[in-house]
Amino acid sequence: MASEPFRIGLTRDFLDDSGKIRFGAIGLELLDEAPGVEWNYLPVDERKLRPETIRGYDALWVLGSSVTANTLDGADRLAIVARYGVGYDAVDVDALTRHGVILTITPEGVRRPMATTNLTLLLALAHRLFDQDRLTRAGGWSRKHEVMGVGLTGKTLGMIGFGNIAREFVRIAKPLDMRIVAADPAFNAEAATELNVERVELDDLLRQSDFVVVACSLSPATRGLLSRERIGLMKPTAYLISTARGPIVDQAALAEALRDHRIAGAGMDVYETEPIDPNDPLLALDNVIATPHALGWTDEWAYLSGQSACRAMLDVAAGRVPPNVVNREAIETPPFQAKLRRYREEEAAGR
Asked: Given 52, 146, 274, 345, which residue is catalytic?
């Protein structure tokens, strides 16, 4: 008797209101061309996935939906949750590990788009792009001297976090001739030497930097990392760029510092609560550039992230461990190893 196909379920938030994929090409041809693999969208669009919704799937491809311990109740068949992106704060990683389910992310897809997102905000803030735009539209041509920008040569760029995205950003920012410092408990000294990046403690970074970029992941250790006190360490001429996860920054304290001009400005792509309330005090300030957690969304991001997630799921379907596994301790658990053996046997039998 023929074995069952490897079944993949995509969360329905991949679709727009018309039923089309929000992001264009995301690599689905890889799944279409794979023998013995079936995929479809989950039957309902849920913020928190329920057990009955994911029942019968070997793999979940997740955009924004939450995967909780309750989600996994009875999900003995599930082997992989492939996250479209690199953040996984909406996924209960420990619960996945207990159930023998691996979690993968897609750093290949976000590394360059998020690095250029940081560069976009850096340049827009330094050249006061939005101020210049507003002045021009208001007929203020004769007052353009009032919106002078900030030269970057010799200025200090501070990276909070020195992971893949931060290092890619440093590479593309090198021609700007800035001094670059970084604070990260898992500091990569070899990469720092290659990129001429100085290691400093976080408080010193905040005191020294002209531009501070939040590029660390959200964890219990980084939640609220940029507190009122730490924001108070920044120079009054400094700018903050936040593109990682909103809860890393005390948003109310940041809004007050910007309102009182205790720092010069901010570029924000992420917020403590998303979507951000249109009446949030942060959005009333003219020294803030605000984007809807989507500035890095490009066709490059969409396709490379999609390909990465598809290949991870197809690796598991073939009985292989994919790259970019978050909870590597789940790999050796008996439930996951049993699933891999079954997939290998089915693959060898020509599923």
From this structure: 274
